[in-house]
Amino acid sequence: MRLILLGAPGAGKGTVAKRLTAIDGSVQISTGDILRAAVKAGTELGKKAEAAMKAGELVSDDLIMGIMGERLLEADCKNGFLLDGFPRTIPQAEALKGLLAKLGIELDFAVNLDVPRDVILDRLTTRRTCVECGAIYNVKSNPPKVEGKCDACGGAVVQRDDETEEAISKRLDVFNAQTSPLVDFYGKEGMLLNVNATSSDAVVEAIQGKLAS
Ligand code: AMP
Fold first, then answer.
1. What is the pLDDT of residue 208?
2. Which residue ranges form the domains of the chain, and what is each CATH number?
3. pTM of the predicted model as reported, rounded to 2 decimal places
């Protein structure tokens, strides 16, 4: 499958992507994970992205298109991919369309994971992430077996820098202003699936249903 996962921070894009990749061997491509790894490794890319990320703002379209232009050429994309957190602006969506046309790749559709703002806020303030493998936990509904330690790889499970209340509020404002117009964009392209994403089971089912139809 080749899908775009759209939705506010905390809508469940990463969780849904992990479940779908386990089903058919397609790969999850999260620009947020790529950027966090670059920041951690102290690369040029990481240095350029760090300040905007910490403030809950978007990094530049040019930087993101540079990353994605290379990433989509990697061999593991041949089995399909789930774009998680990309595109995030109309210029990114336009650039992606051009890039895919050039590569001769067709997307199945874009999925809009729709979740009420109060649910998002609750999820983000209670979310914890493994710094090593990116596994996602929740202090209330899905804590690691040993506090602060990843079940999968033993890495440290922490609250992300951009999951303070101030940064979360900024990220949601940025989402409303710059990313939510993509729902219309893909609607007009005739390739949008809207899903109530309060439960990830319902999202996975809706996506599988549409892929099979
Ligand atoms: P995420 O993990 O997807 O919430 O991304 C974390 C942060 O990385 C965002 O708040 C942005 O600062 C940056 N980021 C991730 N993906 C993009 C993108 N497609 N365009 C611009 N900035 C991005």
1. 95
2. 2-26+80-212 (3.40.50.300)
3. 0.89
Q: Is 128 in the pocket of ligand 1 (CB under 6 A)?
A: no
Å from CA of 65 to ligand 1 middle:
12
User: Does residue 59 line the site of ligand 1, with CB under 6 A?
Assistant: yes
Instruction: Please state the separation of Cα 35 from the chain's center in Å.
Output: 12
Q: Which residues are catalytic?
A: 13, 88, 127, 160, 171
Ligand 1 neighbour 31 (Cβ under 6 A): yes
- For residue 60, which atom of ligand 1 is closest to its CA? 21
User: Tell me: the pLDDT tens digits for 79-122?
Assistant: 999 999 999 999 999 999 999 999 999 999 999 999 998 889 88
Q: Which contiguous run of DSSP H or E holds residue 81? A: strand 81-84
DSSP assignment, residue 109? Answer: E
Decide the pairing of beta strands 127-130 and 157-158: antiparallel
Give yes or no for a contact between 38 and 64, defined as CB atoms under 8 angstroms apart: no
The pLDDT value recorded for residue 167 is: 85
The model's pLDDT over 10-39, given as tens digits with 9 standing for 90+, comes to: 999 998 999 999 998 899 999 999 999 999
